[in-house]
Write a structure and sequence with these properties.
By secondary structure, the chain is mainly β. The protein contains 3 helices and 14 strands.
Length: 306
């Protein structure tokens, strides 16, 4: 109310100034005083940035967004076969892998998720903790910072059942920081430094720990449509033999309670340890997978702030 009153008084002062030049100095002082009061009101509150991205996933990886408290987000992701397989396999549409996931908001800054991928029969689970939130006003913060640890379980049968195999050999872990900023209503960018740990490697000279730096962003082209891009660069000394960097391009389309994502990527897997560390497709050779993500949210608990 005080802010509205300030703006109203500011408009009245402008009208008074137009009525008489003899009071110009007094009017200028009044305008300056009222402006300071309005600015002071803005600084007394913290304004958090919202909708940095349309959903919690950019293409394959996470964004800084969380689902709200008490909200369940059902995600279905598809990756078809390689486009360069030609007409015989309908440019990859004859083959598909899928991930089904459930994400749930515990608080406004903490969410958990679980999923199962047909690619290598992988189960994965994670939580996402929003440590910092971009804001202006009383509390100024230029970025949003999130931490996402993930555990994945590869449930394929062991290649050599005659040897002594361990359950721990099936486990993979990742730790990721997401540093994002919304630069304008239509432009958002984030960096994703990531560590992926593999308990078991194929070759003795391969590292158990793989380091990668991701960068991604979106640019809105209309009220409900945006262009997205995502790239993960693997450190040359910490990568698997025969792999390449993951590069994905796509669109987000918002339709009511759904967010529909269409994209092309050289990564077939949809868990961090697969698309970051096991990508083998080459863009220049057409080793690309067309795919989509569908997100639908449901309120299953009482939504509250915090």
């Amino acid at each position: 109310m005080r802010k509205m009153f300030g703006y109203a008084m500011l408009a009245i002062a402008v009208a008074i100034s137009a009525m008489g030049a003899g009071h110009a100095q007094d009017t200028t002082d009044l305008l300056s005083q009222l402006e300071q009061e309005v600015i002071g009101d803005n600084k007394s509150a913290t304004n958090y940035t919202t909708a940095t991205f349309k959903t919690t996933r950019l293409i394959n990886g996470h964004t800084v967004e969380n689902v709200a408290r008490g909200v369940l987000d059902v995600k279905i992701s598809h990756r078809f076969g390689k486009l360069n397989n030609g007409l015989y396999e309908l440019f990859g549409l004859d083959n598909a892998t899928m991930r089904m996931g459930l994400d749930y908001g515990i608080t406004s800054t903490l969410m958990v998720g679980f999923g199962r991928s047909t690619h290598q029969k992988t189960l994965d689970a994670f939580f996402k903790w929003k440590i910092l939130r971009q804001s202006t006003g009383k509390r100024r913060m230029p970025i949003t910072l999130s931490y996402v640890p993930t555990v994945a379980l590869k449930t394929l049968k062991f290649e050599d059942p005659n040897r002594k195999n361990y359950f721990s050999s099936r486990l993979f872990f990742s730790h990721q920081l997401i540093i994002g900023r919304k630069f304008s209503e239509g432009t958002s960018i984030q960096l994703m430094p990531t560590l992926v740990h593999r308990n078991l490697v194929t070759y003795a000279d391969e590292p158990n720990d793989i380091l990668a730096l991701g960068i991604g962003g979106r640019q809105k082209i209309s009220k409900r449509v945006s262009i997205n891009a995502e790239y993960y660069y693997q450190h040359p000394d910490y990568k698997l033999r025969g792999t390449t960097n993951s590069l994905s391009l796509g669109f987000d389309i918002e339709t009511g309670g759904h967010v529909f994502q269409l994209h092309v990527t050289n990564s077939q897997g949809m868990a961090e340890r697969t698309f970051i560390t096991e990508t083998t497709g080459l863009w220049e050779k057409g080793d690309l997978y067309f795919g989509f993500n569908i997100s639908r949210v449901f309120t299953v608990g009482k939504r509250k702030r915090g």
